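## tool: complex_structure
## caller: assistant
## args:
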Amino acid sequence: MAGRTFSFPIRANLPTKRGDYLTLVFLLVCLVFFLMPIYVMVVTGLKEATSVSLSTMWNLPTRLSVGGFMEAFERLRPNMGNSLMIAIPATIISACWGSVNGYLFAKWKFRGSNILFALLVFGMFIPYQSILIPLIQFLEILKLYGTIPGLVAVHVIYGLPIVSLIFRNYFANIPDEMIEAARIDGAGLIRIFTRVMLPLSMPAFVVVAIFQFTNIWNDFLFGVTILPNPQSQPVTVAVNNLSGSFSVDWNVVMAGSITAALPTALIYILLGRFFIRGLLAGSVKG
Amino acid sequence: MNPLPATNSGGTQPVSNQLNQNQETGRPLRLTRRLSDRILSPTILSPAMILIVLFVYVFIAITIWVSLSNWHTLKIDMSLRQPIWATYQQMFVMPRWHADLRNVFIFTTLFLTFSLGLGLVLALLLDRKLLGYTIFRNVFLFPYSLSFIVTGIAWRWIFNPETGINVLIDSLGINKLITGLGGPALHPGWTTDPSVLLPLNNWLGALFPPVKSLSIQLGIPMALIPVVIAATWQLTGFAMSMYIAGLATVPHELREAARIDGATEFQVYTKVVIPQLRPVTVSTAIILGHVSLKIFDLIFAMTGVGPGFATDVPGIFVFEQTFKATRYNLGAAASIVMLLLVSMIIVPYLWTNLRKR
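## result:
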């Protein structure tokens, strides 16, 4: 079988042995498990409020209704906008800044740069609960507490470790000979970055952008603690509030969850390749 | 196989040194250029580093100070308590905190077992590249792109004892079967069930008498199981992807050699492939382990503190003490314990990985 896979790396193998059929059955069972919550969300979201009942949860809707989605979208629209206004600038700023840091840590090492890098990388593992109290006090002093720019700054700063790490690993793969060659041509640190490294780093930017956008979009802790005003909260916080209030029907909650998940889900579906690369680059720390 | 691209910089370093030596003539000029560039590099890095030192290390130091202070109302009070560790002392006798530590330990153990186990099995099965394997792979990873909040909402609905799984149990006729056999109908309370499976207190109490005086039951809180399932659902795809990436680096020759030596297909995996995946397992366990020690959003959206703190974890404890009860010193103390727990696995990991280069 390995030989067949080897010669046709793209084509899938047809099941031949009994073990192959058992494998497929097991994978199908797992598929049902993985699709179950998505099925529940979609089916419930498409039901009419009156036909959402506890005992018929698994049934398909008798009549399709977009009412749940309409109401969810109406309620969540401002928060979707907030999430975009938080995630897009924070992603762009942290990607640009992190690319510079990653380049320097990869190619312009100096005495102690590895220790600095370790200090930086540790920052992405900390439980953010352990910095929240001083963070909020500090943002209050700067008059940034409760504001979207404040939350953008927070995401940029705490995103620096992971973004710098991904870029550092990416730039480390670019041969030093290229830098040497540019240097002999008289280019300095800055020119090597803008003329040699940046043109090569598009794939890393895509990976980082997807990774950061997903992380920031899905954030809850910073959103709920730094933005107490419901008007400016990101969509994750708004959806959680929606599901916690008893006056809202379940079809609206489920439709709202789908709405909130849609941007990152679409990124995954459309750009899955880069998504996986970012996940591996970001998780394979060090 | 080593998932870390550690060899890259390590491998290219000697080459550049060699180049420097070979270009002896160009040296004086390049040395001065190098010198200014060497100063430039730390200068450009300094804003980011200053921010990280402030926002990570100084803030952690302030949080430690808060945890030792008298600040337990809305009014800021940074004076130190007498004795200085009084808040920690107070926290470590709280039954709720005991429950939190039990829960986060049980949660991490179960979640790591399931997600790593299932992730490995799925990666190995998909490695055979049978019909539709890209579809399977994409579906299994899909939950990773969602937020914990969405995951929590969906699974809360599924484990609602009035509907979801319990309706499924009824409509699939499982309960008819059980009652027909004379057993009691299955109607688990799931997230509302305060009971603890596999109670350990008596057994452990025989070994360590202090356990007998605990006010909580050690064991597996029933309400925590749905949360473990939800977390496994969300993050198994991550473990699977790590293993798929790892499998790609296990040389085909190695497996072929084992087959030629007469190993069965099962032995090829248990004796050759899986041992090669050890470094992937370590990295994945550490990454998922630190996520699980910090777990907050998922539980916040799915169950909250749970019946009798059955699903409460340090992440929730910190949030509630700090932002709901305004007991800042208590919240800070709990967050510092969280930080210590995470550091215990992350610091050795970073130490070994960053020293390699």
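## assistant note: Chain B touches chain A through 117 residues (CB under 8 Å). Residues 158 and 205 of chain B are 37 Å apart (CA to CA). Handing back to user.
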